[in-house]
Amino acid sequence: MSSQQDPTPSRAAAVGEVEERRVGDISVVAVSGTVDMLTAPKLEAAIAAAAQSSPSAVVVDFTAVEFLASAGMGVLVAAHGDLSPRVKLSVVADGPATSRPLRLVGIADIVDLYATLDEALAALQS
Which residues form the signal peptide (predicted)? Predict the structure, then answer.
């Protein structure tokens, strides 16, 4: 079977991948691909895991996200409410697939939105 007929590579690219890492006392949850009702639970679990390490902030990096559905935005709203008041939630999103919907539905009014991870880290570390 040729790779053009095998649906696995395109499906793998569509699945939201989530990685958590630490930058100083800030947890960064980087997401790629699609964030929808099937992949939003992975994002939710990653944010919860990041919060367990007592960071000063959790930054959700949507730089590599191609599609952000309402389920993903719902995870952000829930995380904003669930995180300790000492843990700031910020989002990195730039472009029509991510920052535009976050602004349209008002999530950018409750969490800080940055165009790049460097901008978010600089603002949170100051």
Answer: none
